[in-house]
Amino acid sequence: MDGGTELSLTIAHIVQRLKGSHLHSQIERQAKVSKGFQSLKSVGSIFRFVLYFLNPLTLVFAYSSQLPPSHPMAPPEHLKEPLAYMRKAQASWEKRVLKSLNSMSTELEVPLARMRSAAEQKELANKWNEMGTDDPDLSRFRPVYAPKDFLEVLISLRNPNHDSSEDVSARSHWGLIQVPVNVRDIPQLRQAYSELNLITGQLGIDDYFPFVSVLVEQDSAAAQQYSRQGCPTGLRADLWALILNSTNQPPDVMHYEQLTAGVIQHALLVDHLIYKDVKLTASNDDYYFVFEDFLYQVLLCFSRDTAVLDHFKYNSATPPKSYIHGKVGDEECAVVYPPNGVIPFHGFSMYVAPLCFLYNEPSKLYSVFREMYTRYFFRLHSISSSPSVIVHIVLPQIGAQPLRIAFKWMVRGFSGYLSTDQLLLLWDRILGYDSLEVVAVLAAAVFAFRAENLMEVTSLASAEAVLADLSTLKVMPLIQVFLFATSI
């Protein structure tokens, strides 16, 4: 395929993704005031005009980075996941999770969804901003799964076309995950993260002013590049929103209000799972317990947001479906459940909690979280051969028994383990490099830092004790020393 054809196919794919979005309307407005627009008739031609003559990086980087690395005409299942054994493993895992949810519904006699009574709706509407004061009985409910359950699934993965006996080595016996994938070694990581080298400053007071200019110009690509070296605390919220193309325009606020109304009108079984998770995690965290109300609001709305389903177009997973009561087995009566297609697991609320430090307006907080999830976080609990998914990022520098300890850190993106200021510095780099790989690099750096203590332990429990408290660690010095001051 020549360059021109490939570019045309990419543009067509992006145009389809952009239709109806806020960015799409921005492109149209910008094109209409530009010379030469009058001769352009179709959406595609308008977009091509903008792409070639305005600022393509600012306009499309947030979308093009999510495109599947395949020809748009390939079968849908291949766009989502090209390897059959990965698709089979993901499908099997989804069935297991959905079966657990349905079993809970049957055992507890709690319907998957129901209309709230008028009295219930009024009560919930009145306490919407203080749901943290509510203390429902959640003793009967349990998380559908925890990170350790997902790890066992990854450990069991095998490529049927690969004979592992051909490359038996100390490393292969040492590693937990036996899937042959290409990962970057230390020299390659050094090249990929060159901005993090020991002689390059990582966010000083003098770095503040370039960010202001980026915000004034609304340059998303520049914001992403600058965030590789960390965002100033006072500008981080605006910079992340710019990178994610997350706006808080009237349509966004209206969408959030509609989701709120949906929560008030209908009760879902997953609501109990959300309540339970917040109570077990964020409510017991010294940093996040004060945001309990925000977490309920955002996560309950998220569970109803059908716009989240769009990420399944490039996610190896398939949204779970259930049947309308009394219509089990009738595919015409199968509906996605929950409406957003995402069943929350133990620790899920910790994806939202750190963002509460940045955004105090629920609709804005929600918008940013949704973008973070559909771009990054879903990859932390999906089975796929994509380089940015958990199967790959756990392998580069860990790939060993320490993974049993580190996996829970990585599935949460270290949320709940690092102090909040350090966590936000880590997430700056996730956004800056548009990759979760830095999460695995940090996990390996933690083990390297605590190596002397770990060499003295004689059991897994002792090792976990050594690594129990990460709240005093400084993220960037650890990563820099691990990548650039460690002999290979």
From TrEMBL:
It comes from the Eukaryota. PROSITE patterns: TBC_RABGAP. SUPFAM superfamilies: Ypt/Rab-GAP domain of gyp1p. Residues 230-434 form the Rab-GAP TBC domain. Gene3D superfamilies: Ypt/Rab-GAP domain of gyp1p, domain 3. This is TBC1 domain family, member 19. It comes from Labrus bergylta (ballan wrasse).
